[in-house]
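hey so i finaly got around to running the thing on RsmD family RNA methyltransferase from Microbacterium hatanonis. pasting the sequence first so u can double check i didnt mess up the copy paste, my clipboard has been acting weird all day
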Amino acid sequence: MTRIISGSAGGTVLDVPPKGTRPTSERVRESLFGALDAAGLVDGARVVDLYAGSGALGLEAASRGAASVDLVEHAPQAVALIRRNAERVAKALGSPPPLRAHRATVTGFLRDAAGPYDLVFVDPPYDVSDGDLTEALTALAPHLSPDAVVIVERAKRSPGPRWIDAGLEPLRDRVYGDTAMWWGQPLPASQSL
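ok and heres what it spat out for the 3d tokens, dont ask me to read them lol
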């Protein structure tokens, strides 16, 4: 069972797609959000959850005080599920921030994205190649606030993101069992010219 861990919607149960996604485990989400909360990166943040699957990461951010959350998924069944999950979280929050589910490819969404985003979750399915991930990160870079944090989640055996190729820089990384999380950020303005 997947649920919101903490915040105003803590305990809200979320549906997950029956196949084709690998939801972030509760233990990993708890560790991740503990670090994000400690750094003051969630409350008031404009969040985008790319390859959202069930929407668990973005909706967890909403529960913890994010100012807005965009959930991007291409599979129509997953988008319908994300919308149901967002309705549950909105009901639990009472006065929710804007929670928007978008049926689009990541690069398609980013062509017209409003941004800027302060916190970005990138949790691609296994079949997304390293080149496609770099393309998505490159498309994302212009939509980031100067102090944004981008978190890429993949299997620990996967190579890390090619941050520099995408116009970003690495911040840190963590491994939780079979899951690796790489944190990145925009290059300082003087280096991105």
